[in-house]
Amino acid sequence: MNERLPIPELELLRQFEERDPGYWYAEGFELYRPAEYGNTSGIDTWSKDPEFLHAFLAFATANASGSIYALWRTDGHTDESTDLATLPVVVFGDEGGVHVVARSLRELFQLLTCDARMWATDECAYFYAGEDDEDHEPSGRHEEYVGWLKRQFGLDPVADPDAAIDAAQDALGERFDAWMRRYVDDY
Question: N or C terminus of the chain with fewer C-beta within 10 Å?
Fold first, then answer.
């Protein structure tokens, strides 16, 4: 049985990823296998409330140390007619922070072109691959990914990842924080 991811954009990325699975195209990012899609392990440490857990569809690791990317089914977008690729992307950081980082999957795909590690602290989410980061080398398939993104979606690499994350936060951050406070004490 050939399993597929239920969101066309993610399925296209999965197919790209599987063409040469031995090399990364964006540091720390790795799609979940179709059987793992939507898994709330790790997210459930924030709240066990079924309504809270239903609001997130985990789909990828955000870094090699345990951060998770998930789609957030915002209020009013929980029915079957919702185009899941248009939902906001949230990172659950292994450092303890939870933040909206993109307004849609395609925005996240652009963010991945910075080819850096995602960090999510209590204060903010950001990509890091500075000059003093001895371990950072471009991912083996990074240029191939950038070309794929342009051909598949007509998207160019992100010019300023921090500004893109800030734009997502400006659009959805307060709403997301208020929503989280309904389920998480001391958020």
Answer: N
